[in-house]
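Hey, I'm writing a tutorial for new members on how sequence and structure tokens pair up, and I'd like a real worked example in the thread rather than a made-up one. If someone can provide the structure for the chain below, I'll link this post from the tutorial.
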Amino acid sequence: MKFNMKTLARTTVTLVVAGAAAFSAAAFAAELPGSGKTVRYAQSDSLGANYVVAQISIAALKELGYDVKLTTVSTTLFFQAAAQGDLDIATDVNFPQREPGFKKVEEQATIVGEGLIDGGGINGYLIDKKTADANNITTLEQMKNPKIAALFGADGKADLINCDPGWSCGDVVDFQLEKFGLKDTVNSIRGKYEALMVEAVARVRRGESIFFYAWSPSWMNKALVPGKDVVWLPTPFDALPETVPNKGSALVPGVSGCAGSADPCRMAMAAWNWNSVANREFIAGNPAVKKLVEQMSFPLATWSAWEQTISESGGSDSHVRKLAEEWIKDNKDKFDSWVAGAKVAS
């Protein structure tokens, strides 16, 4: 049998190159911090812009090599599952409202990062700007005046759209109505918040008076723009129930659309945020996940825009994924920098 030395040489070179390429690909895969690992990721059962952030987070985790299993569960149940090691992380835990529940599991779970909303969010009371301007209403305390209160209700008392029954924000509102001396002139309306607010938007469009509690970022701030359609009413003093920790002064600077151009504007409470909470053992063993979450945050306006489009579309899974994909495409440099930073974390 005769050997063709040139053919043998070419074959050898081809095998070496192919082998090197295969080795390089395997080495690259092995270098990914999430290779062979699964993240049991939780999102709350309250649909909103937080679902878009979850999809962006999941996309980044997959870039890091992780498999991701997504579970939708109430925050209360997430705390229990995270403490037991049955779920790993959630990025949509509302603080300070959820702090009492978190305190019960903080030996097993920990807060990761500084929050997903740049600068945090705000909560407070709003009325339509038309009524505010016509009657020189610049503070919530003026609702003590029966003549002012009667402008916002049919029975001589102001009807205040409050949060859903069971929502912690509604407990804050009811507590404050008592503390601010408004129980005799204000009715707290606690029903299905989204439905009540759809009607509130329609009433403002018809030129009617409206009084409601809200937060930002939210779809409401796009449908009823503070400073244009509605104004925030400053509260008279800080007041929170014992179940809601005080995270600082409710005086918040730079609030757009605060009545009377007040700055700072005293809101219902200090700034709040969507925070990430993770099982301590999981996050200690996955520094890449920790670094990724610590880098992530989004402008308040971005959150509000997501909230509005979800409200208008019904928030289907496909629409939420599309919003996340569009954000990643439009912010590729930032997204890639988050992933790159997480890859080198140790």
